[in-house]
Amino acid sequence: MTKETKIFREWSFAQKRDEWMRRLASVPERDIASGAKLVGFRLTLYMHEWKRRAHPGYDQLGSDCGMGARVVQTHTKALEKAGWIEVRRRRNIGNTYWLRYPWERDPFSEQEYDNGTGVPLVTEP
Predict the structure, then answer these.
(1) Residue 120 to residue 38: CA distance in whole angstroms
(2) Which of 9, 30, 88, 117 has CB atoms 3.0–4.6 Å from 96's, for a disulfide?
């Protein structure tokens, strides 16, 4: 685990969200369309600071971003495919969204990994 990763894990959710937005903004247009970035930025405004998730519908995001719900759906799928968000899709209830940090190897695990092997280090107390 790099020093940057350790420091990132200690950040507040607001700091991580802001870093997420900065990095998404810097992704070239050929990799992620500007419309997808706009949807991603708007999605972050719905994120609950403690629960770290959001539940806006496609219609609401579309209204916020000035685009149709179908276009929003396409953009959220693009963000998900690129590793920027995780989506749990549920009919008639609405989707749940989480931010993902594609520049981090495994930002959600508190375990340290052995030199890129993917095997968690097990340490005795």
Answers:
(1) 36
(2) 88
Share above pLDDT 90 across residues of the chain, in percent, rounded to a whole number: 60
Tens digit of each residue's pLDDT (9 = 90 or more) over 48-78: 888 889 999 999 999 999 999 999 999 999 9
Quick check: helix, strand or coil at residue 61?
helix
Domains in the chain: ranges and CATH: 3-99 (1.10.10.10)
Contacts of residues 87-94 at CB distance under 8 Å and 24 or more positions apart, as own/partner, are 94/55, 94/56, 94/57
Q: Report which residue type is found at 45.
A: L
CA triplet 42, 21, 1: central angle to 5 degrees?
140
The pLDDT assigned to 49 comes to: 83
Report d(CA 79, CA 69) in Å as an integer: 15
